[in-house]
Amino acid sequence: MEILAFGVQADEKPLIERAFAGHHDVRCLDVFLNEDTAPIAAGHEIISTSVNADLGARVLEILAAGGTRMVAQRSTGFNNIDLDVAERLGMTVARVSYYSPYSVAEFAWTLAMAVNRRIVRASTRTRDFDFRLDGLMGRDLHGRTAGVIGTGKIGEAFARIAHGFGMRLLGWDVAENPACKELGMTYVPKERLLAESDLISLHVPLLPSTQNLIDAAALKTMRDDAILVNSSRGGLIDTAALVTELRAGRFTGVGLDVYEAEAGLFFLDKSLEAIEDDTLARLMTFPNVLVTSHQAYYTEDAVGQIVATTVENVLDYTEGRRSANVLVPRT
């Protein structure tokens, strides 16, 4: 059987091909799955998709009409999939429920340190042989407060690094993590965390209850000199409200690896095109903002785990097994 994999990055392709070798043939496409590209899957019972795939009702209907019966998503998040429609169409959907939490936690810290110590500005200057220090002053994080919103595996890994920096730890989640409490974390209401934290990092999934979790009111609660990092899902932050606060001169730095309207932009080369997203274009103009293209997970270790689990999900489907990775079971 040939598996059709959409949205495969160049670095990812050899990992996928090696992982499927001896099991199934796999054809890797660099195009992302959407309504225009869905017809390519005709005749393929199983497809694999990336986190930015459009798996809404219309795309699922096109896939089902073409004979697709199984979607193996190469990510933990699945807010891009209409699971109710998939179930109605009799399609099996599986995801990767776990991969290296250190990849995301370490990248979140990379963003935090980059905006705190003005690394991008400094690098740009020195490439032009400008070695002045004006405007590059950062702050020690030792002794300051880190607020971790979402203290699951990734949030815990982030907190461990913060503990290593000698930071006071505040946490907010629907359930307390005993490992985080052992580090000295105090769980507090979200409003208190936002008001007291020097550094705030988001590590919660995107759900209806977390959509725009950091809205205009939440942003106003934060300290003027706070650092905000989001390496989870773009929809957690009301970006328009964030731009408003940045225009008012607030925040030491903002590091974003995700953006609420990133589909159709991230993972693609748009350097020769006019960007029609005015909010993103405005966001890019602030010197204290660093935006990266959803790459926090992108390490050899994490991608290797993602690919291996995707192969397992496909084999479970073809051999009639079911695992905890299945979101919509085979009928």
From TrEMBL:
The keyword NAD applies. Keywords: NAD, Oxidoreductase. PANTHER family: 2-HYDROXYACID DEHYDROGENASE HOMOLOG 1-RELATED. Its EC number is 1.1.1.28. GO terms for molecular function: D-lactate dehydrogenase (NAD+) activity. This is 2-hydroxyacid dehydrogenase. The keyword Oxidoreductase applies. It comes from the Bacteria. InterPro entries: D-isomer_2_OHA_DH_cat_dom (IPR006139), D-isomer_DH_CS (IPR029753), D-isomer_DH_CS1 (IPR029752), D-isomer_DH_NAD-bd (IPR006140), D-LDH-like (IPR058205), NAD(P)-bd_dom_sf (IPR036291). Residues 110-296 form the D-isomer specific 2-hydroxyacid dehydrogenase NAD-binding domain. Residues 8-327 form the D-isomer specific 2-hydroxyacid dehydrogenase catalytic domain. Belongs to the D-isomer specific 2-hydroxyacid dehydrogenase family.
